[in-house]
Design a protein that fits this description.
By secondary structure, the protein is mainly alpha-helical. The chain has six helices and no strands. The model has no long low-confidence stretch (mean pLDDT 87).
Amino acid sequence: MKFLKFLLVGIFFGIVLVKSEAVSWYRIFEMFKFQSFHMYGIIGSAVFLGILFLWMFKKFKVNSIAGTPIVLPPKEKSFTRYILGGTIFGFGWALAGACPGPMYILLGTGVFSMLIVIAAAMLGTFVYGLLRNRLPH
């Protein structure tokens, strides 16, 4: 029962993504072919709101629900790892037609081929876990 609030927020988020067509393979395909602004508008809005909320968290020293201060550690400056990781993520997104969150939403809407994509994502995560100590961090 203590995780019910997270389930309800996830369901609400899934409904918003489906209704805004953010999980539509056709919308994602249009985005990668630069034929529509729809997805760029959604992603741009999310980036803008993320920047705004992080700025507000830092400026007003917002605490978590538990009352502890929210601390944002500085990110390591590493051009190669972000370019390589972003490229792999982008290729996976373009090939599958979905990024990690919407994979489950699409499965919930009846796109059962997402089971293959979810299995591949799980396999990739497992392989990363095996190779993590040998990779630059």
